[in-house]
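Issue: copy button drops trailing tokens. Both records pasted manually instead:
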Amino acid sequence: MKEYNMIVIGAGPAGIAAAIEANKNGLENILIVERDEYIGGILPQCIHNGFGLEYFDEELTGPEYAYEFIKKLKETNIEVLTETMVLDVDKGKVITALNKEDGVIRVKGKTIVLAMGCRERTRENIQIPGDRPSGILSAGTAQRYTNIEGYMPGEEVVILGSGDIGLIMARRMKLEGADVKAVLEIMPYSSGLVRNKVQCLDDFDIPLKLQHTITRIEGEERLERVQVAQVDKDFNVIKGSREWVTCDTLLLSVGLIPENELTKAMDLDLHPVTGGAFVNENRETNIEGVFAAGNVLHVHDLVDWVSEEAEIAGKAAADYINDNLTKRKKIIKITPDENVTYSVPHKLEYEFGEENFIKIFMRVTKPMENVKVTFNYKDENIVSFPKKIVMPGEMVTANLPTALIEDHMDEIKVSIVKKVGESNGKK
């Protein structure tokens, strides 16, 4: 059985970035395993622009963003296996995989990086009653049909959910000549990036109906119509609000789920909110030498941050192999508090090296304006950062300075609260 210093599962933006960063930090003998026929993950089908603004400081399409990393990958001796499905990963870091040329293969990694990405929720996940005709697709599937396969999903389109893929596909269908009847969102706010709502819906006069959902689907062989209803704050259908909308296509953009079947099989500790693994600041799981990064850990809205997070995992894997990591005497928990749904990383486990700060990623519970992100130890404010606006659909980040983290601390709570005057903290 061949052994590698690092095996990366998934050749999307997270997997490629992690492998390149590990190699950049002196790690050789790296293998990337990808189940698809090409590398780059979802990016090749994302032909719209808006990628790379954070990472490359320029606006790129999805294929262009992927190409920048693929170019770097080709400059290394990193081995890549495509069309290879990973069947199992055990706690000893032995991977069992399958492809059409080699059959069943088994390889062992001194470190493993989980970078399997995420998948879309389906009709079954949200349990819409009614018939089961053709014409009901996830927004990502429709995107692949349109941008890679060259097929038009339909002519009269309704989109359920205002996630970023749904917003982007509303514009894409409109540009291809479809009649996009509406984008429906059960929440009282859009769940996608504000810029996507403006550029994809407002600029193309596509209506967004907030606090609306679909209560029934009808159609024999092909979708014929959907029943749309308004809901109250408790998501109950408002009496008298039901109406039928004729359409031949329904696109679902109702959330993403981390691809964590392999993670579950390894019996890793999983976070109840994100669905991904519990990790420390190095994106290391509860099994030493096993890391997770990107959308398999928690769903991102910017691929730039996927790459950034994966580089943390890649460097940490190289440091792990080279024995450059020293554990802290006391683990410090990072706990989400007021108006924070979750935060990543979940704990600080290693002594700080040259890092001046730990970047904390988080999601908020509701839209808010004129707020501050606060880090507190017990009742003492460590540091605060102002934010003009925060939305559940947009990741919030804040840099926690390592100089302000003291050895006696055992838990730091992160909150997002209304800004009243100036912070009384140490900032």
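Record 2 (pasted manually too):
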Amino acid sequence: MSKPKVVVVMPAYNAAKTLERTYNDIPPNVVDHVILVDDVSQDDTVEIAKRLGLKVVVHIQNKGYGGNQKTCYLEALKDGADIIVMLHPDYQYDSTLIPELIRPIIEGKADFMLGSRLLGNPRAGGMPLYKYIANRFLTLCENLVLGLKLSEGHTGFRAYSRKMLSTIPFVLNSDDFVFDCETIVQAVAFGFRIGEIPVPTRYFEEASSINFRRSVIYGLGVLWTLFRYVLDRIGLVKSDQFRKPLWEVISPYHAREMGIGPEANARTQV
């Protein structure tokens, strides 16, 4: 098998102070391409990204964290990525760990990899106590409903195989933070394998973090997503979000442009 094309996508919002540090830590011999999608930043994020030579997509209006990721993944699929790494440009996650994150996908042992902060000591890295407790509780709920054994389901450092991202209908997901939970549920719904590696925790002033009120809204969104998944599995309220592949919920034109569909996916190794 030839070397897979690895594309890093960065959903960015006001990341001017941390973008360059994050980018400089990305292993150059592993990553082929970096795409930054800017969600109407009010600082110099776009200018810095262009100076660094990144491919830059700028939203004309703010689409939210989930909406930003949708653009990221569609662009990566158009670029022919075999493995897509989602990395926050706020330096909260260690970019040097990308080779470890994608190795199980390359080896055919996983379709979806998560960089777990809870496999280490997140409190030592500055994670607030209420976030730690909420993370543990919500991950427990996800494990119980989905039949998983994850240590953390709420990390912003992730890697996807092309086969998974070109199958799950992520365009139907929320434009808000609960998008991350929905991709995990979809991975289970479509039979993809999930793995984890430990990553250090970095909490500092420039690192992005939602406040307590948004955290509560996010938590309720996670529980609602799990409830809808249960209703779908028992056939009470069926949802396209957990049943229809991506090529059935987007235009045929864009499906062809991205090279996705049942025949293309059957040939895809990663």
